[in-house]
Design goal:
heterodimer, A: about 375 residues, alpha/beta, Rossmann fold, 2 domains, five-stranded parallel beta sheet, about 45% helix, elongated, B: mainly alpha, ABC transporter involved in vitamin B12 uptake, BtuC, 4 strands, globular
Chain lengths: ~375, ~290
């Protein structure tokens, strides 16, 4: 009797589930997932980006939702690594049944979640992942942050503009820095060359033997290409202490206020490429700017207001797609590839055939009088 | 060439400070202290805090950093080494690994992940021929030299030094002659902590301090004492300089126009060289072949 009862229970449960799958009630909320680091060293990124995504969802809901359905954001902690991101992604897709993802933030998260997204046909739009590998991570993977590979390309264009024909570069031996070095070398025009090209162990702080050898190499510009500012500071400091006066060019690692307390004289005049940190500061006509609204709700961004802005836009472009073509993953993907311009808080952008953003790009910044300023010409 | 030599002296002095203390501790106590890199960093970070946050003069901050180093070494000895090392000389290996993890966490909590520099900004460089060196670096090289010289004097020309050497040679025999070995142990351990703190402070002045730097410091010191002959103080010092010179001279130049060692191998090259040496002199470069039982 007991067995029969339990059989009855299970089968009715199964029936109920099946019914649920066949005919979703139209007033059920549309679920969107969020992946990002909420704990650990990168938690500040996750804090800002999840706040911004929540803000976008709340705005859409306040305006009546999508076709009368509310939007629900389900936030998962992927701890800035691919294993946790893959597990969180499985949960979002298979348990919660989300229709799209905002995230991940760290590149490792995006790359870890990508295979799951591909199999489940769930679109993933990363706000701030910068690894060149994200470009080829899959058909359903988009991002609104420029690829690191572009920094090397931008640097090469800058070398040409300034006629820095002989380039000396010291890179730290990490995927990120080597990627930038390779893209710089590939993008250099005719007549421009890397004349001094060294790769050092991660976390090296003594560059004196290299810099001594650099004295014998005539160069127009020095490219400092490390993975962390604790390596960048001694590198440029020892370069300047050796008496070199050539300009220094670097990438986003140099966009760090820490450097002012480590090497205040050596950083002065250094140029670097990184997306603007003024994204979201300009208001559209008749509206308040994103950063103003963000500060009102959450206070100052813990990491960078630009990251919050891009997360707000990643959520925004997903919700626009859903409101136009519905909740089918393939349709959302096709909509995003076909998009010609999304007018976001960070500016207008769309996606190329790899899902990489066009319209959000690096800007040239420099240290000037003890501050980081964006160079505008 | 002169510049490379100076570079080697700078890096070697840093290595010698840390390795010297380690060699003494190993020679006298037979104990490996794997928290040494962290102890060096804490000495450096304390100096940074005193100088940059409390704005004390540099000299007082350095004294404070050394004091913290001594205090930390003393606590380490009492809590993590003294209760264990007589039972088995490998027990402190485990306890100091635990300590190194605790200190890693403490450094992150107290001083955060971002790099810290005790004296930020460009150093005043002095031109010497075609070489350049900063006053701070001259200071470091000289201080290391003075420390080592006074050590040599104490170790070889005073009654106290004789006692230390007696304990190194045979602890129980020394004990039976009335030498208070346990007090010497404590003193030597504290001294190694002070020397390590010296290294950390120098690192913070010359470059900068980051929490992850502890382990590489420890490893290099171990390479020096093993290559120098375990427990051989002068061997360890010489090997610390040797490693530094190898790192400076071997990489980044074309050897006879034939082959080229990229900078990425800077650290490996020196260690490979030492392994090669040990193949021929297994008991250390500066030790006459050990008597086997």
């Amino acid at each position: 009797m007991k067995k029969f009862l339990s059989f009855l229970c299970t089968s009715s449960l199964l029936l109920a589930l099946a019914a649920c799958g066949q005919a979703p009630k139209t007033n059920e909320p549309i679920k969107i997932g969020f992946l990002g680091p909420l704990t650990g060293g990168a938690a500040s990124y996750g804090n800002d980006t999840s706040n911004a995504a929540k803000m976008k969802v709340a705005e859409v809901n306040a305006a009546g939702g999508i076709d009368g359905r509310m939007v629900e954001l389900i936030v998962e902690d992927s701890r800035c690594n691919s294993a946790d991101a893959a597990a969180a992604m499985q949960k979002l897709v298979n348990v919660d049944g989300v229709v799209a993802i905002v995230g991940g933030q760290c590149s490792g998260e995006t790359l870890g979640a990508a295979p799951v997204a591909e199999v489940a046909h769930v679109v993933l739009v990363s706000p701030v992942s910068s690894s060149p590998d994200v470009t080829t991570a899959g058909d359903f993977i988009f991002r609104v942050y420029p690829s690191d590979a572009l920094k090397g390309v931008d640097m090469a264009a800058y070398m040409e503009k300034e006629s820095y024909k002989k380039i000396a570069i010291i890179s730290e031996n990490t995927d990120y820095a080597i990627g930038i070095r390779n893209s710089l070398q590939a993008a250099l025009p005719e007549g421009y060359a890397i004349v001094f090209d060294e790769v050092v162990d991660p976390d090296t702080k003594d560059f004196r033997s290299l810099i001594t050898r650099l004295k014998k190499v005539k160069h127009d510009v020095f490219v400092s290409n490390p993975q962390s500012d604790s390596v960048l500071a001694p590198m440029i400091q020892q370069y300047r202490e050796a008496g070199f006066t050539q300009p220094i060019v670097s990438q986003d690692i140099a966009d760090s206020m820490n450097l002012l307390s480590l090497a205040p004289e050596a950083v002065e005049g250094m140029h670097m490429f990184n997306p603007s940190n003024m994204l979201g500061a300009t208001a559209k006509a008749g509206e308040r700017s994103f950063s103003e609204k963000y500060r009102e709700q959450f206070g100052e961004a813990q990491s960078n207001m630009s990251f919050a802005t891009l997360s707000y836009d990643a959520a925004g472009v997903i919700l626009e797609a859903i409101s136009t073509v519905g909740t089918d993953g393939d349709a959302i993907r096709d909509y995003l590839y076909g998009l010609t311009n999304y007018d976001g808080a960070a500016g207008g952008f769309h996606f190329d055939e790899n899902g990489d953003v066009i319209g959000i790009s690096n800007v040239l910044k420099m240290f000037k009088d003890g501050q980081i300023v964006e160079v505008t010409e | 060439m002169v510049q490379l030599f100076i570079n080697g002296l700078i890096a070697g002095s840093l290595g010698a400070l840390v390795a010297g203390g380690l060699a003494l501790v190993y020679g006298v106590l037979g104990v490996f202290n794997l928290a040494l890199g962290q102890m060096a960093l804490i000495g450096g970070y304390s100096t940074w805090w005193l100088h940059q946050s409390l704005h004390l003069p540099l000299s007082i901050s350095i004294l404070g950093g050394l004091l913290v180093g001594a205090l930390l070494a003393w606590l380490t000895f009492e809590i993590f080494v003294n209760p264990f090392y007589r039972r088995h000389r490998f027990l402190p290996l485990v306890t100091t690994i635990a300590l190194s993890m605790i200190l890693d966490g403490a450094i992150l909590l107290l001083f955060q992940e971002r790099p810290r520099s005790i004296v930020p900004g460009l150093k005043k460089m002095v031109q010497m021929g075609d070489a350049r060196i900063s006053m701070e670096q001259v200071g470091l090289i000289l201080i290391t030299f003075v420390l080592l010289a006074s050590f040599a004097y104490v170790l070889h020309s005073t009654a106290f030094g004789r006692k230390i050497r007696a304990v190194v040679q045979h602890e129980h025999a020394a004990w039976s002659l009335g030498i208070p070995a346990h007090i010497l142990h404590r003193l030597i351990f504290i001294l190694s902590g002070v020397l390590a703190a010296c290294g950390g402070i120098f690192l913070g002045i010359d470059q900068n301090l980051t929490p992850i730097f502890a382990f590489p410091l420890t490893i290099k010191a171990y390479a020096a004492i093993i290559a120098g002959g375990k427990g051989n103080f002068w061997g360890a010092i010489l090997c610390a300089y040797l490693i530094a010179f190898l790192e400076q001279f071997v990489v980044g130049i074309h050897w006879f126009g034939l082959f080229y060692v990229p900078a990425g191998y800077q650290q490996s090259v020196a260690l490979v060289f030492i392994i090669f040496f040990l193949l021929f002199k297994p008991s250390g470069l500066f030790v006459r072949s050990a008597r086997a039982a």
